[in-house]
Design brief:
It is built from 15 helices and 14 strands. With 367 residues, the chain is α+β, with helices and mostly antiparallel strands.
């Protein structure tokens, strides 16, 4: 188990004692950062905001600070039209929280074949509408329930961190101080958004975003905790005949919800042969071939973190399974399964029938 985290909630009860109990935390961090000229902007922020730093770290000795470099501070100021130190107090606190890992980690901890998922101190439903799960609790302790980042060491030895939509570079300092370890990153992390907003901001998912809006499925998906969203890219929609334009609302709703798994599944938790159920009660089988991950016939192209789970951008629309995985019809009364052939008025056009036939045929070809 990695070094565990004491619940941040305890800090709230001790708020009145912070100056006395934790008085050395900010000064210790400032002294540690002083050894690195490329972290001078962060050191200045620490000196300006000792109360915030003391509140975040407390007297715990088992954190890892992903310290934004001076380059990261400049990039943040350019993209947000303001400096990080001038951000509103809540934004500053939440942003710093997302850079603090709930465990003491060094370069040697990043060796996993698909990296490591690590909880941070970022909590609250707006940015962390998810739970830690068994594996994270086993590795980092039951109190480590904050929003996560994904850290992976590449074949060339470089380390990358996935935080929300950003993939940033990590420079391993392995610097110890009284609060744990310090590593350096070259960007300030953006705070996570919900599934729909994440897809809207992701290049190549315009067609999926259109389908989400058309079907109305985005509302439940955005507010539901603990989800994995499979996002077919625009090329996948084009290859399938643009079903987001040709399907009716019920058909589109089926398609969208057949790409949502009601649990967060991070890359290091993926296993070959794993079978998952979607919101539409259909089955998805996971395949791992070397460095590539497949959900049924769709290969993962990239990953993004949302406030309630994870999005995998994939290169195909998953073949539609006409029979629910459990062998029984979905039981939802608010979102019934589509019945496009129930009557003449609802009967799909020849184009739609063709598209459905192609997708269904694709599912059988994978058996």
């Amino acid at each position: 188990m990695y070094s565990s985290l004491r619940p941040v909630a305890v800090l709230c009860c001790l708020a009145g004692f912070i100056p006395r109990v934790f008085s050395d935390t900010a000064s210790d961090l400032s002294a540690a950062l002083a050894q690195y000229p490329s972290l001078s902007n962060l050191r200045q922020l620490v000196n300006q905001q000792p109360t915030v730093i003391n509140t975040l770290f407390g007297n715990n000795k088992n954190f890892t600070l992903l310290a934004p470099s001076n380059e990261a501070f400049s990039s943040f100021a350019s993209s947000h039209d303001r400096s990080l130190p001038s951000a509103e107090p809540d934004l500053l606190k939440n942003t710093l929280s997302y850079h603090i890992l709930a465990g003491g980690l060094t370069y040697s901890n990043f060796d996993g074949p698909r990296g490591i998922t690590v909880p941070t101190l970022l909590t609250g439903e707006l940015y962390n509408n998810r739970s830690s799960g068994v594996s994270l609790a086993a590795n980092f302790g039951p109190g480590a329930n904050g929003q996560v980042v994904l850290i992976q060491k590449q074949s060339d030895g470089y380390v990358q961190v996935q935080a929300s939509l950003l993939q940033v570079n990590l420079t391993a300092l392995d610097k110890q101080w009284s609060g744990g370890y310090i590593q350096m990153v070259d960007h300030v992390f953006d705070l996570p958004k919900n599934c729909t907003e994440t897809m809207e901001d992701t290049d190549g998912l315009d067609a999926l975003y259109e389908a989400l809006k058309e079907s109305g499925a985005y509302g439940p998906i955005d507010t539901m905790p603990n989800v994995t969203c499979l996002g077919p890219n625009d090329d996948a929609f084009n290859a399938a005949g643009n079903p987001q334009k040709n399907f009716n609302t019920s058909e589109t709703n089926w398609m969208v919800r057949s790409h949502v798994i009601p649990q967060p599944l991070y890359p290091d938790q993926i296993q070959n042969g794993l079978v998952l159920q979607t919101l539409r009660n259909t089955s998805i089988e996971v395949r791992v071939e070397g460095e590539h991950i497949f959900f049924n016939n769709a290969r993962v192209q990239s990953t993004a973190l949302t406030n309630n789970g994870v999005v995998y951008v994939v290169d195909k629309i998953l073949a539609r399974d006409p029979t629910p995985a459990s062998g029984s019809a979905p039981t939802s009364t608010t979102d019934p399964s589509p019945s496009p052939t129930k009557n003449a008025a609802d009967k799909p056009s020849a184009t739609k029938q063709f598209l459905l036939a192609v997708i269904v045929a694709g599912s059988f070809s994978l058996l």
